[in-house]
Target: non-specific serine/threonine protein kinase
Amino acid sequence: MGVGTNSFDDNLKQGTQDFTYSLYDKPVAYIYISPEGIVRLTFSKNDGKWYVYWQTPKNPCDFYGACGPFGVCKASPSPSPICKCLKGFVPKSSDEWSKGNWTQGCMRQTKLFCERQTIKSVSSRGKDDDGFWKMVKLKLPDSHEFITAFDAEETSNDCKLRCLNNCSCLAYAFVSNIGCLVWSKHLIDIQQFSSFGVDLYIRLSRSELGEGKPIKLIASLTAIGFVSILAAIVFSFYRRRANKKRHIKQNFESTGMIKSSRDGLREYIGKHDPSELKIYDFECILTATDNFSMSNKLGQGGFGPVYKGMLQDGKEIAVKRLSSSSGQGIKEFKNEMLLISNLQHKNLVRIMGCCVKEDEKLLIYEFMPNKSLDTFLFDTRKRAVLDWATRYNIIQGVARGLLYLHHDSYVKVIHRDLKVSNILLDEKMNPKISDFGLARIVEGTQSLENTQKVVGTRGYMSPEYAMGGIFSEKSDVYSFGVLVLEIISSQKNTSFSLYDQQLGFLAYAWNLWNEGRGFELVDEILSDSYSSSEVLKCVHIGLLCVQDNAVDRPTMVDIALMLSSDMDGPQPKLPVFTIQNSIYHPQPHLENTISSKNEASITMIEGR
Model:
């Protein structure tokens, strides 16, 4: 094989650039790329003539989005015009369409039924409900959302129902050996072939469907592979719009800002492949919450207000609405959305989906009818509902949830904001850990992490985290210890005040334990209706967890074992660091002060 050279030459007149590869100083081939994105490989037979060896794109349909949104392109066998609107759609601009400019695409003729109905009209679903029109032998549109991996038990009908029950879903395809794909924004870059392709079901109003009957979906994995290869070859040379998308995504991740927030978020979610996460229309959530009515407000946290809602199918939800004044932003929003969607445990709250529109960022959760633990624990009237059996069950449930996060989930997760207001209660008063906006994933072999910004809640942060930004699973253990002592006493650690002694809540609890008076920490409303051994065990565990040195604290494995057996731990050390200066807030008329207000503030400290 001979020695060759290569060079690039600019043709300013034509606005092109030539790549030349020469063998023995004689050009043998040229690659030509035009401003329109046409790539052509030519070669010479040493007869003075140049022959086209390969060219792409071969037809106008190979250009990305040639027919615009909701338009379908078919260039073989050379129809004229090459673009047509999907069934139920008409050209957005008839004048431009007639001139052969199809890039503006098409728009829907008849509004979807699910967009017109309200909660009151849910019962009218049936004969007027939306349906699907089948198109065959297609190159599927861009920007799909992957809903489920292939499952032998999953059917096309299951995929159809998933799409039908989500008003934002505009189309679906069930691909054999791949799974259920759905589209919830403009259908763009659709191409129809004559002999291969994939079936696509497009959501239409019932009046647009006519007498078409549903046909069982049959798709070819081989066809999908062929289309993917073809798309990769073509797009690598001229897909400028794809490059623009990548710039949007990079800006989205690096700056924490949302450009075209709804589309950008969907793209981000699609890259991270959450298993069941749905994206809801903002109008759907407005209807569900009665325009965020104050009568539906469940509470207020560091993230923002939380509202109760009811979806069109009658399912109750809780909607967390990011406040513009919140210390948390889009980074924490994405973190919670994607992290918790992949964690499954009975003591972790389940996220159902999310919604983004302009400055609105919403997280949709399963509804917890008993709200958060602080609404009972720190309320002088409601805390009587929490008998000892309920409190002990809550302590055990939170411990199981943390054990899952630290040891049993597929990744090790540090919550970093465990507190009473982030423990939700279901209809049976079972606890579920919530609010994963500040959570971090750490490698299984790592024991410590460091952050330049300390975020959390006053009174629950461990000394090493508050002072130096160092966090580990032992940081969550510290917060768990504070939580346990608060559950036993019904006293909030940051609101505790003992006027005649400059003691904080944790030091006061340790003194009672050290003097053999641990039962005095128990909420007086419980009277004598509690298990002495269980109370002493929990006080002991709580004090072990809040020790200043992280090495002295037990792991959640140790704690789970102590809770489920008679095993005793070592004598806890006095938590010196957490002694609070109560003299700054003296209250001479009260010996012990509690507060029912949820002080779920976010503290940000620059780490040293």
About this structure: Residues 4-56 form one domain. The chain has four domains: 4-56, 62-238, 246-366, 374-606. The radius of gyration is 31 Å. The first strand starts at residue 4 and ends at 11.
